[in-house]
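For reference, the entry.
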Amino acid sequence: MSNPGIREGLKLLSQRDFARLFFAYLVSYFGTAMTPIALAFGVLELTGSASESAIVIAASTMGQITVILIGGTLADRTSRQTVIVCADVIACCSQLMMAFLFISGTATVPMLAMLMFVTGCAFGFHQPASTGFIPQIVKREELQAANALLGAARNSSITLGAALAGVLVATVGAGVTILIDALSFAVSAILILTLSPRIQEATEDASFFDDLKAGWSEFIRHKWLWTIVIQFSIIVAALDAINGLLGPAIAREQLGGAVAWGIIAASMGLGTLIGGLIVMKIHVQRPMLLATILVFTFSLEPIALYLPFEVWLICIMFFISGLCGQIFGVLWYTTLQTQVPPHLLSRVSAYDHLGSIGIAPLGIVVGGFLYEGIGPQYTMLICAGAIIIPTLLVLCIDDVRNLRSATLTS
């Protein structure tokens, strides 16, 4: 990978289309960062049950799992830009309805779960399309810088959104907080619609099913890819349970409530922002080796909540996890975008995402029941093990340790 440096990378913001894409990330993720906190505390206030909250939170991931392979294949076959815009519009509508239910006092667990499922379906179309869309906006040699900057946009928004969400939930309630997220999707859709990407490389003239098969063949061709995806199927299940449900529940009972969790989530977002700046300056010969080693820091999250520590110390540990997580993410997406042919990128990304989140709903639901059954401390130990053990196993894979960076040339 090239080493663009921060100054050279920031020049991308002078490009009209990239600047608009960057701002779309800022706006969209600012709102999106609020919803998990608003939803977690809103449902806990509504039901008082961690297990019922888990069902609502897991519904979003179930929606993604249901449609993501269709979304990735459709993005490669048609227009990634159109798929992203439509997904943003659908997410906007579902979030508006969810906000109305909370504001009007008519929210129920089944209705919230259904709307979260719809939002998840929108994410299932959006995510693989976005991965394939970035190389249509920037040149090949600009990919690492672009991924780092977009990660910085995403995570600076997460920092501010999470911090504000805790205050908003505590003052004006979950409904207004989710309403802001709905409006952010509308703004993002408008910005994406105004972009002029390079012409999308056409797929081969084949059936929809044959396109799915071609994406699968490319996915399993890369051992480093599918082994890390299997690793992350377990890790994401643990992390989604922590960040979507268990962390807010512990904060509510032991740390002072939504404001404390908002600060903790914001510290993680700040870490990811700093990580994005760091990764713009580094040149990594073996990206997946470094990325996998960094994954061990994700275990700091359940360790921090195990006792739990003081809020300031939890913030430091989440900051480190966020910083390393962002470096992992940039290395991962840049490697994916340079190792996989462009016309297959959204499909392969769909298999990547599906594998990574495949058991996340189970992790969230099991986490809720474990929390109520064996208590938060033992649940956090199980989550830490679910991060450390798969990572140790992946480091035994030669392709993960020895994969070399592709040369980023136009």
In short: The longest helix spans residues 223-255. The radius of gyration is 20 Å. The mean pLDDT is 86. Residues 70 and 192 are 21 Å apart (CA to CA).
